[in-house]
Design goal:
- About 60% of the residues lie in helices and about 5% in strands.
- The chain is built from 40 helices and twelve strands.
- It has seven domains: about 160 residues, Arc Repressor Mutant, subunit A (Orthogonal Bundle); about 80 residues, Serine Threonine Protein Phosphatase 5, Tetratricopeptide repeat (Alpha Horseshoe), CATH 1.25.40.10; about 150 residues, 3-Layer(aba) Sandwich (Rossmann fold); about 90 residues; about 70 residues, Orthogonal Bundle (Arc Repressor Mutant, subunit A), CATH 1.10.10.10; about 150 residues, Serine Threonine Protein Phosphatase 5, Tetratricopeptide repeat, CATH 1.25.40.10; about 130 residues, Serine Threonine Protein Phosphatase 5, Tetratricopeptide repeat, CATH 1.25.40.
- The protein is globular.
- The relative contact order is 0.04.
């Protein structure tokens, strides 16, 4: 139970917000709630709540009785008055004060941000909105406004500490318009602009404030602001953001993937109240929830489905302490196809800290693993922008305790059979809600001064939230312009364009877009148009810079201009995205205003940014892999240069969806060769065990190579598809691709790649226990690597031949091959290869009955793995060593060795742990003791 004062007064009872009827009752409850836990004298209640119109004692008692019985409020009679006992978080004001206190004391900026954002999310509009005409309440409203400003100030300080300066500029510009004498907000804006490379703009903010204070108050800025002004003038290094320490996320950290919520969210009170009721489904405790599905956060494009879902998710996330998952399923993006649920599922498993080695390859097995990870937890899952029910089903939680929120333009009635389906259709804003949205963004004084102009803007935006937000952003940056002038400008564009997409609102939404677009600087307008060429769900600054052909320091201000105009969204991670309607509009504009040559050049720069950065990152993941030759990068691109393997993995992880989409890009006349990007992705996706996605990527590369008659691209794509289908144990299909790849590379006399294909073919035959057939492939690979002087390939082939000879019982041959392999790996100082060959020798000597010699080879290999920190291979060799002991009948030593391996596999959360556990517990093993 909670009494909410930070908006219209209501009582949240069993998770449902219930309004309080009657002005006197609301005023009475407001007084008791503000003084929650304190006894308020009866006469004082009358004076505060009703002033000279205070009712009789009997009337007061009747109102108290009504509140007690209707809302089950614990109002205690305590001489000489009444006391409301609700506990620490009994009011949203107490909850906000507590969160602000915690935020101010938190040691980490990220923790401060989370707590302060949660506090600010409690404001639902003007505090005590429906009793604001009471004189006492007006004083409380002022106090609560000051509390909001304090929380906002603390939050902005924390966000600046996290390096979010560029994203904060539009918000701070609006704040100083609303609070023209607030020096701290001005200081924050100056610092944000300076750190965004906009020193002149930062100094201009100070000059404006100095003039405003002189004209309005007759004073100068305070000493802190004057000192900041001086440090900006001299480019003092103290203003730069300190480099953050490298943070290692704990394995058990709860995922927190929700995007940023909109600070100025307003309206939708009915829909929010409905969503709140879902928290009480099946009882008040969220732990007893069934999997509740909300599809109708459904409605047309631009209606505010995502905004509502994300805002509500932030508001209730404290009910889900095990974390929040979020994915944009891109169900209606005009560019790439909707996201495959398997890709979304893999992203969720990564967020849940499931190691790649533990993730099975089959979709159904991955669904089972995902739902088992959610079992017994209280997790919120937000599935945004879904297209159809089948895209959603694999991502739904399976047991009580979790809640799924789905947004879609479709109503997804196909989910009705899930048993927890709660549709909520989102309609256009009411006129009052639309007015509140503009008031929230522009200020009550400005909108109240021109009510007719506000009505005109609302009508011309057809009450569509996206259109209203864009218009409000334009108006906010032109505070001196009358709203009537802006409304007239908007009217000038009406009726000149067709409506975007059939079935959308009966409004010329493009007229709103064009009205805002034509106010952009030339550089920002060009960037907005070119963003329509980008295929991925979002884009980072280096890629944007490549798209424009400008350096990053000149590109960042253009991005800031677009975000300030609400034509672009900056995600929490510093990545940018377009609303799909705006993307469609950008596509139209670039096809009209940018010549074919300019579009082709921009797209070529963007794709080459991804290709050359991917290639550099891949070289860090697998430096011994045979390279390919790329053409030099074209002029104007910005490259990311990962410094080490960890940075390479981080870059691939952040860009994976974009890179996969880029492989499917039609080359057109750009000279783009998609198979080269597929080549660069192969290692990363393989090391993540993302074999099925890797197959899709390589197939896309193959399709593009076939269309372009690119023989090299076809050869590499067939080679990788052969390897991947082998991993998926589809050996027939693998053989077909391997043969086609081998044919190409033998034709072009690339003997090293051809030799490696033979090694792949031999591995597949070995997996099928076709040892005699595998030997010739290894022998051909050995001869080719010897001829090419490729010592690494030679050593691998020799070790493979050693293992095959052991399997066939030809121990003299195994001894000879193994000795040569050991010599080569020693010369190369390839210690992992050396450990692999020692492990093969261990198996051979177990079969020869030389148990102690076999154990010695195994322990030498294990020592190398431990020195390298390679725990996966350490566990594999320990398992083989245990198998060797078991084969000789020494089951006690076998069990001890298997247990040592099992400890490692459990630490790694590896999928082989359960198989090894079953082996230890097998009936043939002797009883302990």
């Amino acid at each position: 139970m909670q009494v909410r004062l930070l908006g219209p007064l209501d009582v949240v009872l069993d998770g449902v917000a219930q309004p309080v009827p009657g002005r006197r009752r609301r005023a009475l409850l407001a007084v008791l709630a503000v003084h929650c836990g304190q006894t308020v004298d009866t006469s004082r209640i009358g004076d505060l709540a009703w002033g000279p119109d205070a009712p009789s004692r009997n009337t007061l008692q009747a109102n108290v009785s009504y509140l007690r019985h209707t809302f089950r409020l614990p109002i205690v009679s305590s001489a000489p008055g009444y006391r409301l006992d609700l506990g620490a978080d009994g009011t949203d004001v107490r909850q906000a004060e507590d969160l602000i206190r915690q935020g101010g004391q938190a040691a980490e900026p990220a923790d401060r941000v989370a707590r302060l954002q949660a506090a600010l999310a409690l404001w639902r509009g003007l505090p005590l909105a429906d009793v604001a005409d009471v004189a006492w309440a007006q004083k409380q409203v002022h106090r609560l406004d000051v509390l909001w400003l304090q929380a906002k100030q603390f939050l902005l300080d924390a966000q600046l500490g996290l390096g979010e300066h560029a994203r904060l500029v539009p918000d701070l510009q609006q704040l100083i318009e609303q609070h023209p004498h607030h020096e701290h907000f001005h200081a924050q804006l100056m610092l944000a602009l300076y750190r965004s490379g906009r020193q002149a703009d930062a100094l201009a903010v100070y000059d404006r404030l100095q003039r405003t204070l002189a004209d309005d108050v007759g004073i100068d800025p305070g000493p802190a602001l004057r000192e900041l002004h001086v440090t900006i003038l001299r480019h003092d290094p103290v203003l730069q953001l300190p480099a953050p320490p490298v943070a290692v996320r704990p394995a058990a950290a709860a995922p927190a993937q929700l995007p940023l919520t909109l600070a100025s969210f307003t309206g939708r009170s009915r829909e929010l109240a409905y969503l709140d009721t879902l928290l009480s489904t099946g009882g008040a405790a969220p732990a007893r929830l069934g999997p509740v599905l909300i599809s109708a956060v459904s409605g047309t494009a631009g209606i505010g489905k995502t905004t509502l879902a994300v805002h509500w998710a932030h508001r209730v996330r404290h009910h889900f302490p095990d974390g929040q998952l979020y994915v944009n399923l891109r169900g209606f993006d005009p560019g790439p196809a909707a996201m495959d649920p398997a890709d979304a599922l893999r992203g969720f498993l990564d967020a849940l800290a499931v190691p790649a080695a533990r993730i099975p390859t089959g979709l159904n097995a991955q669904i089972d693993l995902y739902r088992s990870r959610l079992a017994g937890k209280r997790m919120l899952v937000v599935l945004d922008n879904a297209n159809h029910a089948d895209q959603v089903r694999p991502l739904l939680p399976g047991e009580p305790g979790c809640l799924a929120v789905i947004t879609s333009r479709n109503q997804l009635n196909g989910l009705a059979d899930t048993g927890g389906f709660h549709p909520l259709h989102l309609d256009l804003l009411t006129h009052a809600e639309a007015r509140d949205l503009l008031t929230q963004r522009l200020g009550a004084e400005r909108t109240a001064a021109e009510p007719d102009a506000v009505d005109t803007i609302i009508a011309r935006c057809a009450r569509l939230p996206l259109a209203l937000a864009i218009v409000a952003a334009r108006a906010a940056v032109k505070p001196g312009f009358p709203l009537a002038t802006l409304a007239a400008e908007l009217g000038d564009t009406q009726g000149t364009l067709d409506t975007l997409h059939g079935g959308e609102p009966a409004t010329d939404i493009r007229s709103v877009f064009s009205w805002s677009y034509r106010t952009l600087s030339a550089g920002a307008a060009r960037l907005f148009r070119l963003l329509g060429l980008h295929r991925g769900p979002d884009i980072a600054l280096p890629a944007v810079a490549s798209l424009t052909g400008l350096p990053e320091h000149r590109t960042q201000p253009l991005l800031t201009e677009l975000t300030a105009a609400h034509l672009l969204i900056e995600q929490e991670s510093g990545r940018y995205s377009l609303h799909d309607l705006l993307r469609a509009y950008a596509v139209e504009l670039t096809s009209v205003h940018d010549g074919a040559a300019d579009r082709s050049a921009a797209l070529r720069r963007l794709l080459e940014h991804y290709l050359h950065t991917s290639y550099r990152a891949e070289r860090l993941l697998r430096p011994n892999r045979e390279p390919i030759e790329l053409a030099p990068p074209v002029a104007g691109i910005t490259l990311v240069e990962p410094a080490d393997r960890a940075q390479a993995v981080a870059w691939f992880t952040a860009e994976q969806q974009v890179l996969v989409a880029a492989v499917g890009h039609d080359p057109g006349d750009t000279g783009w060769r998609p198979w080269q990007l597929a080549w660069s992705l192969f290692t990363f996706l393989s090391q993540r065990s993302s074999y099925r996605l890797n197959v899709q990527v390589q197939q896309a590369g193959l399709d593009a190579a076939l269309r372009a008659a690119d023989d090299a691209g076809q050869g590499y794509a067939h080679r990788f598809l052969g390897s991947l289908y082998g991993r998926l144990r589809d050996f027939e299909r693998a053989a077909g691709h391997n043969q086609r790849a081998l044919h190409y590379f033998e034709q072009v006399n690339d003997h090293v790649v051809a030799a490696n294909i033979h090694l792949t073919m031999a591995w597949a035959l070995d997996e099928q226990h076709r040892y005699h057939e595998a030997i010739p492939h290894n022998e051909r690979a050995l001869q080719a690597h010897l001829a090419a002087g490729n010592q690494f390939g030679e050593a691998v082939a020799l070790n493979n031949l050693c293992m095959l000879s052991v399997r066939l019982g030809d121990y003299p041959a195994a001894e000879a091959y193994g000795a040569r392999s050991l010599a080569r790996f020693t010369e190369l100082d390839d210690r992992l290869g050396l450990a692999s060959t020692l492990d093969t020798f261990s198996l051979m000597h177990f079969r020869l009955g030389n148990v102690e010699k076999a154990a010695d080879y195994a322990h030498r290999a294990i020592t190398i793995c431990r020195e390298l920190g390679d725990r996966h291979n350490e566990a594999a060799i320990l398992t083989t060593l245990g198998d060797g002991y078991a084969a000789t009948g020494d089951l006690a030593r076998a069990r001890d060795t298997w247990r040592e391996a099992l400890t490692i596999l459990d630490d790694l959360k590896h999928g082989d742990a359960d198989k090894l556990r079953a082996k230890i517990a097998a009936d043939h093993a002797p009883a302990e003791g």
